[in-house]
């Protein structure tokens, strides 16, 4: 899509602002590593374990589970209270243990016995989303993450960071929920997995690194020229403010980005 960053302003249409956000953050944060961070099975099961749990405790639960029961058939066959004990570092082990076993049962039923999700690569997006979100503990965000990260399907995961940045910049309405934002934001962007992947990662980083929940670091932000929040709090971005804005993330001065 053509893009002229000087033509985008606070009152531009939402799709133009969303695309400007994509283009500017692409240049600011640079390329995103393309390899999926985890295997599909690990992505799915770890997400169940991660609910209201720190990353360290989620990893500990995952490792202990596989240490205790060896593999997915072992986890499925384990007495549920024993599985709950193995994942006790998570927030609700007694809820998550039967969920994990139910998810494994459904995968096994779908594949005829093996524990793989690779059939999702061949399914249309809608079918994959419906199958995943029908499982206990799997919501839109997890299903979208899995389909986008692992199978490069054109969907858009929206978490609290992406949601906050989109609302502050103003291409997402202030009352749109995180759930609803999945379809609203997707409709603003081209149906291209590469662009959606970069949009998700860059806005996620932006929410973590600059557009904080409390006290966003607006002086450092390259989106200020058309951000509603900025203009409501600081007035229109002046040429001096825009000229003083960094054009790239400085990892030497500000630290390495999470991947
Ligand atoms: S200008 Fe401020 S509020 Fe707007 S996106 Fe940037 S950091 Fe967030």
From TrEMBL:
Residue span(s) of domain HhH-GPD: 49-209
UniProt keywords, alphabetically: Endonuclease, Hydrolase, Nuclease
One Pfam match: HhH-GPD
SUPFAM superfamilies: DNA-glycosylase (SSF48150)
GO molecular function: endonuclease activity
CDD domains the UniProt entry points to: ENDO3c
Keyword Flavoprotein among record annotations: no
GO biological process: base-excision repair
Protein name as annotated: Endonuclease-3
Taxonomic placement: Bacteria, Pseudomonadati, Bacteroidota, Cytophagia, Cytophagales
């Amino acid at each position: 899509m053509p893009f002229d960053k000087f033509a985008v302003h606070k009152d531009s249409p939402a799709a133009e602002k969303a695309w400007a956000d994509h283009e500017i953050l692409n240049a600011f944060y640079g390329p995103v590593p393309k390899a999926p961070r985890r295997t599909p099975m690990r992505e799915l099961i770890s997400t169940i374990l991660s609910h209201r749990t720190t990353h360290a405790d989620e990893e500990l639960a995952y490792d202990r589970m596989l240490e205790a029961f060896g593999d997915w058939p072992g986890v499925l066959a384990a007495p549920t209270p024993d599985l709950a004990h193995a994942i006790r570092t998570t927030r609700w082990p007694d809820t998550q243990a039967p969920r994990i076993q139910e998810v494994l049962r459904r995968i096994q039923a779908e594949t005829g016995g093996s524990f793989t999700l690779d059939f999702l690569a061949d399914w249309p997006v809608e079918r994959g989303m419906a199958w995943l979100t029908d499982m206990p503990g799997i919501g839109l965000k997890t299903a979208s993450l899995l389909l986008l990260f692992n199978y490069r399907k054109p969907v858009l995961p929206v978490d609290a960071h992406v949601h906050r940045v989109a609302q502050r910049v103003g291409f997402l309405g202030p009352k749109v929920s995180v759930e609803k934002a999945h379809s609203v934001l997707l409709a603003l962007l081209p149906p291209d997995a590469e662009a959606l992947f970069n949009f998700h990662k860059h806005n996620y980083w932006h929410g973590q690194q600059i557009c904080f929940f409390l006290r966003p670091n607006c002086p450092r932000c390259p989106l200020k020229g058309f951000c509603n929040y900025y203009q409501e709090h600081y007035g229109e971005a002046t040429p001096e403010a825009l000229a003083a804005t960094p054009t790239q993330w400085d990892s030497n001065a500000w630290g390495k980005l999470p991947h």
